[in-house]
Amino acid sequence: MSYLYTVKELRAIEELALAGQPAGTLMQRAGQEAAELAVRILSPNDENARVLVLAGPGNNGGDALEMAIALAENRLNVSVLQFSSRKPPTEDASLARKRAADSNIQWEDPLSIQNIIKSLAGRQWDLIVDGLFGIGLTKPLDGAYYQLAEAVNAARCPVIALDVPSGLNADTGDIQGKNGIAIRATHTITFIGNKPGLYTHKGRDYAGNVHHVRLGVDERHFSLPQRWLNRPSLFSVMLRKRLHDSHKGSYGRIAILGGADGMGGAPVLAARAALHCGAGLTYIVYLKDPPAYDITQPELMFRAASGFDFSSTVSVVGPGLGTSALARDLLEDIMKLNQPLVLDADALNIISAEAELQQMLEERRGPTLLTPHPLEAARLLETTTEAIQSNRMQAAGELAKRYNAVVTLKGSGTIIADRDGKIAVNPTGGPALATPGTGDILSGICGALLAQGWPAWETALAAVWLHGAAADELVKSGEGPVGLTANELIPEVRRRLNRLVREYDR
Known about the structure:
alpha/beta; seven-stranded parallel β-sheet; 17 helices; elongated
C-alpha cells in the first residue's frame, strides 16, 4: 500500500533510519539507485553520453554527488556543477564531497554558470540531473538558480530530479513563491517515503515519471499516515462478481436531476455512465419537459421532476441543473432525504450561495459525496481558487469535515477526502479529461456505485481511479488527449471495472 508522507514526517523517519548507520549509508544508496535509473534512461549503446549533474549545497547535493560517483564508475562522461553555501555541510554531504573529489568526475566552475546555461541551449548534454534542493527548499528559486532552472526547462534532453524537482513543494505540489519556478523533470526518483506533491497540482507536470525507492529503510521506522496514493487495492473489497440469482432491481435505482434549458446533455452523459457502470434502474429527471427517450441509449428512463419520488433512489444532483428557484427547491427536498446523494456542478453553486442549505448539508445523515472543481470548492469555503490550489489536500479535507461528506476535489491529481481525515491522491487521468462533460461522467460513475451498495469512500476512490484510467487507456491507444470526448470514456470505464472485478474476485 502506497502511503504518502509530509516533509515533517519524512524528517522523523530519516532520523530514525540514520541512527546507528555508518555515515553516508542512505546517501550512497540514493546515489546508486539514481545512477541505475540514469543508465536505464540513456541508450545502453551510447558510451559517449554526457551527463550534467547539478549539485546543491545540502543533502540533495550530496545525493547528486554520490550519483555522479556511481555514473563515473560506469565510465560515463559526468560533469558536476556544485554549489556551496555559508552553512557547513552535514556529515553525510561532507563525506560525499570527499568521495567525489577522489573520483573521475569533471568539475564545472560555478563562476561560469552562464557558460553552462549556453551549453544547455546548445543541446550538449544527453542527461541533466537536478540535485539542487529537493525537499529542503522553503523559498523560491532566485538569482542564478532561477536562470539555471529556466535553462534546464528549455533543454531538450531527459532530466532526472532527485527526491523532488527543485522549486516544487513536496507536500502540496505547488511551486515555491507566487511567481516562482521549478525544474521540470522527465523523471523523479524519490527516496524513502513517497510525497503527495509529486502527484497533484503542478507536481504531475514537473515530476514526470515518478520512481519511488525505500533505500532499505526498515518498515518499523515508518509511521502509518492517513494519506495514500489511490489504487484499486484501496477499494478492492467492493470488487465482487455478480450473483446468478439477481435482477436489475438488485443493482439499485438512480436518479440524475438536471436538464435546465441549454444543458440537457449533461444529465444524459451522467446517466449513460451510471448505466454502463452497473446501475439497475436509471432515471434522468428533468426540471421540466423531458425528452421521450435517448435514441442511442433507450434503456434510460426520462421523467419530469414534478411528482417524481426521490425517496427510493440514489440521487445525483447537479449535471446541467442550472440555478433557478425550481432547481434550488428540488435540491432542498432531496437533501432532506437520507438516501445516498452525489452533489456536483450547479448543486454545489446553489449550496455555496445559501447558508441554510449549507447547514442542511452539514447535518445530513445519509451518505454524501461532493465532486467540486477548484472554483466550486472555493465558493463552498468562501476563498479563492488560488488558495484552494495552493494546498489541495488541506482544502479537500476542510470541505469534507465542514460538510460531513466524502469529497473529490477534481483537477490534476484529484484529491479524495473524508470527514475523518483520510486523504487519497489519484494518479490516473490527465489532459484528456480537460473536455466538456467529463465531470458529468464522474458523477454518474459515483451514483452507479452508490446505488449498488458501495460506501461513499470506496465509491469515490473507485470512480476517480476508473475515470482517469479510462482516459489514460484511450490516450495510449491514440484516441487522445486532443479531441477526446466525454462520451468516449464510458465503454472504457466499463471495461476497466469488469477487468478489476475479474482480477480481485477470484
